[in-house]
Specification:
Layout (H helix, E strand, L loop, with lengths): L5 H13 L2 H8 L3 H15 L4 E2 L5 E2 L1 H23 L7 E8 L7 H11 L3 E8 L1 H9 L5 E9 L9 E10 L11 E5 L5 H12 L4 E6 L3 H9 L5 E4 L8 E3 L10 E8 L6 H18 L1
Parallel strand pairs: 3-4, 3-5, 7-8
Antiparallel strand pairs: 1-2, 5-11, 6-9, 6-10, 6-11
Helix pairs in contact: 1-2, 1-3, 1-4, 2-3, 5-9
């Protein structure tokens, strides 16, 4: 008797609900090729075709039958995991995260945390890191993930710190004419990526101009896709569909950003501790 892995069923359901492989990959934290491979494994396991791709993405008749079973199987799986969890925690956690992590892998981690700990209420706020760190000092957050002072080395000084490469981000069709200032798409003043870009370009004598500024990663992404300019982000936060580059033409490399967790270990709830463990593990896997 064959066993169907629940991760394949979850991918199948997510594609159907969101209407596409790319959106499903964004939600599940996987690349589009990885999503396609999972669908192929599911089809080969059951010897069926679940999607008809000749005219858009349509679920086949066999796929519709599987979809009904898949939803019931995952409902039972998720209910069992939640019900039998050995340690149940409850309460509220006030979490602050940088704007550029808003639509990367953090939503997936927060979703998993919510499923495992349904009695914990998350109050999540996205902002510039300088604002998050200031508000944490004033007691507005229980846990903050933020970018801190930029480092040129990869040496880690604390368990609460990670270093990640900053990469240039383009739409894949960017042409930089050396006789013109390089157009930048950046977050508002105070963003460490913006500071690092300008510092590096000034050091190499490359002219630049601010072509577009937005406090939202969605706004930054849309401007890059439209060809208004280029930007820089931590490698793990580059949205699907955009291109990352350690270096572009004769431009400078941007170094690294330090990601830090801020928390009051002496006055911490079980819910905050558990959320920290989820986020720390996710960052550790992403940086490896």
């Amino acid at each position: 008797m064959k066993n169907i892995p629940t991760e394949l069923l979850r991918t199948f359901i997510t594609i159907v609900d969101l209407g596409g492989f790319t959106l499903a990959g964004t939600v599940l934290g996987r690349s589009q090729p990885a999503i396609s491979l999972q669908v192929k494994r599911l089809e080969e396991l059951l010897d069926i075709t679940v999607f008809q791709r000749n005219n858009g993405l349509q679920v086949t008749e066999e796929g519709e039958v599987l979809l009904g079973f898949a939803r019931r199987m995952l409902d039972i799986n998720d209910s069992a995991v939640t019900r039998l969890a050995k340690s149940r925690v409850s309460g509220q956690v006030r979490l602050g995260i940088p704007n550029d992590f808003e639509v990367s892998f953090l939503p997936r981690l927060l979703s998993q945390f919510g499923q495992a700990h349904p009695e914990v209420t998350l109050e999540v706020n996205c902002d510039l890191s300088v604002k998050l760190l200031k508000d944490f000092q004033q007691g507005h957050y229980d846990l903050v993930l933020a970018t801190d002072s930029l480092e040129e080395t990869l040496q880690q000084n604390s368990r609460d710190e990670f270093h990640e490469a900053i990469v240039w981000v383009t739409n894949g069709h960017f042409d930089w004419f050396e006789n013109q200032p390089i157009p930048l798409v950046v977050y508002p003043t105070g963003c460490r990526y913006r500071q690092q870009i300008i510092t590096k370009l000034n050091a190499t004598g490359i002219a630049w101009r601010i072509a577009y500024s937005s406090s939202s990663l969605l706004g930054i992404s849309a401007a890059i896709e439209a060809g208004l300019g280029i930007s820089a982000l931590a490698r793990s936060t580059v949205p699907l569909g955009l291109h990352s580059h350690i270096q572009i033409q004769d431009g400078p490399q941007l170094g690294h950003v330090k990601l830090v967790f801020k928390q009051d270990r002496g006055n911490q709830s079980d819910a905050t501790k558990r959320l920290y463990e989820y986020l720390y593990t996710g960052l550790e896997q992403s940086a490896s």
